Amino acid sequence: MENELWKKIYQLVYKIGKNKRPKRAIYTDVNIVLTYLWAVLHDRPTCWACSSKNWPVYYRRRCLPDPSTMCRRMRTEAVQKLLRSIEETLRGRLPRNLCRWIDAKGLQISNSSTDKQAGYGYAGGGMGKGYKLYAIADPQQGFVHWTIRPMNYKESKVARYLIRKLEPHGYLIGDGVYDVNKLYDMTAARDIKLVAPQRIRNAVGLGHRKHSPHRIEMLNRLSGNFVCGLLSSRVGIEHMFGHLTNICCGLKPLPGWVRGIFRVENWVRAKIIFHHIWRQEIVPNHI
After folding, report:
1. What letter does residue 180 receive in the DSSP assignment?
2. 146 with 135: CB under 8 angstroms?
3. What range defines the domain where residue 9 resides?
4. What's the 3-state SS for 81-141?
């Protein structure tokens, strides 16, 4: 399966990147991105992919960048733009669904890690140190909008950043964490209906504070068959997180060389790119 994934991504990167070379540079942006993706595909550090002995025989004639060049060029806007373009191209191959899900997944690291950008917060039934992948997923397109934040960031606050990126119209389905007045107002302004169960279970009423009319409207419809069906479909994002972490080159626990938000974002983006290809081209061919 890894060979199939690599063939697809190799062709796509050359098609989108057009092999452009920055001024006074030896390696093109395509060379840099392919070298990085080769390392991520095999869950190895970038320096591993800079050695020709770790490539197939038919790729060993390529001139590979050294680790310092990779470190410098990965931070350039051109390389970052190419990575984002690859992800957007894969996402845009399929039509959007009117119903989308929102959730977060913890990316834990060792509690003894000295990573200063990592946070300590709730993840997977307990407390841990690390980062979180906050994402909005589409049943057809996969992960459409996402961001990385330290573990201690509240899901409802990061959701504001993600909602601003959403296209108008449709439904956004989340768990009780997203039952927040501000989020109901933000989604309604984009003609999106937020669907989330009441945050406090078995609550007698809503209290005396002012609430968003959109929240009150949705809470009154929670017992309806249509809204219950939407809430039950939210398990789809859990399945998608499961696929992301369980495919051959999936998002396993963060390795020791992936520390700091910048490196974590690059690592996760590469994994999501492979996940898009797996969903669109690998799985359909094996059904």
Report:
1. -
2. yes
3. 2-91
4. HHHHHHHHHHHCCCCCCCEEEEEEEEEEECCCCCCCCCEEEEECCEEEEEEEEEEEEECCC
pLDDT tens-digit readout, 211-259? 888 988 888 888 889 999 999 999 999 999 999 999 888 999 999 999 9
Average pLDDT, rounded, for the chain: 91
Same domain, 104 and 234: yes
User: What does DSSP assign to residue 60?
Assistant: T
Q: How confident is the model at residue 124 (pLDDT cuts 50, 70, 90)?
A: confident
Report yes or no on 257 lying in a domain. Answer: no
The answer on pLDDT for 155 being more than 80 is yes
Domain boundary among 46, 64, 91: 91
Query: Based on the domain organization, do 47 and 141 belong to the same domain?
Result: no
How many structural domains does the chain have?
2
| Percent of residues, the chain, with pLDDT higher than 90 | 75
pTM more than 0.90: yes
3-class SS string, 197-227: CCCCCCCCCCCCCCCCHHHHHHHHCCCCHHH
What DSSP state is assigned to residue 278? I
Specify if 156 maps to a domain: yes
Is residue 251 one of the residues assigned to a domain?
Answer: no
